[in-house]
User: Which sequence fits this backbone?
């Protein structure tokens, strides 16, 4: 991951194409440190979270997953940062990566992006990420996509509340007026307004964080998850598929 700063915007770029920007312990730690630094930077009005390669984030690093408690801490830090966080997506987003989108205040995507909650096909559940997503998503859509792991496109992601906006063209062009508006806002106004609009997500993280991180850890240690993850690496169906 690397950070750049220009005209009031700090851009954090996920840059680990070898593992499709999966949420390893290292990446989560780097993001937490970068978020803290942006929070202390008086010149930063907003943070843009983006990526290199064709995947924004593939979810948990199945070879070396981060501690669910550390991922929970990252989500809390994103939602309590007194500056807006804007996701810029031009590729695929899976599983835990969708939790990052839910923690962002604004999310924009280009035409090549796609989305899927893949956990149930691995013997897992979208436990920790549900706290940033359920307050934002259409309930019927959440039930469908959480349960079935079906992939969907940017238009559908916008319809159900996962994205703020999508474009068939350049996402930077679509985001230009958004970032311009944030640059013109005062720091205290942004902080107080973000606290209001993100209140539901913050409440979910505070209320359910411990319970759902425990659930996530238990599921990752289960026999079904071991079978599901092994099957994924071996490119075969897990034993429960009928």
Assistant:
């Amino acid at each position: 991951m690397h950070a750049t700063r220009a005209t009031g915007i700090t851009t954090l770029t996920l840059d680990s194409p070898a593992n499709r920007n999966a949420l390893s312990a290292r990446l989560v730690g780097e993001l937490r440190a970068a978020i803290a630094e942006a929070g202390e930077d008086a010149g930063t009005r907003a943070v843009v979270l983006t990526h290199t390669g064709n995947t924004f984030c593939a979810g948990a690093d199945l070879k070396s997953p981060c501690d669910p408690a550390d991922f929970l801490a990252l989500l809390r830090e994103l939602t309590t940062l007194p500056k807006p966080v804007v996701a810029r997506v031009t590729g695929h987003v899976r599983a835990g990566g969708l939790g990052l989108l839910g923690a962002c205040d604004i999310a924009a995507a280009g035409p090549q992006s796609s989305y899927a909650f893949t956990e149930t096909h691995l013997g897992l559940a979208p436990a920790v990420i549900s706290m940033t997503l359920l307050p934002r998503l259409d309930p019927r859509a959440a039930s469908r996509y959480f349960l079935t792991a079906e992939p969907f496109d940017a238009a559908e992601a916008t319809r159900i509340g996962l994205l703020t906006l999508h474009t068939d063209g350049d996402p930077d062009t679509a985001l230009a007026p958004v970032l311009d508006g944030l640059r013109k806002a005062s720091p205290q106004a942004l902080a107080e307004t973000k606290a209001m609009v993100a209140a539901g997500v913050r409440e979910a993280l505070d209320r359910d964080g411990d319970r759902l991180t425990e659930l996530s850890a238990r599921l990752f240690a289960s026999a079904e998850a071991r079978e599901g993850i092994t099957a994924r690496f071996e490119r075969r169906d897990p034993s429960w598929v009928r």
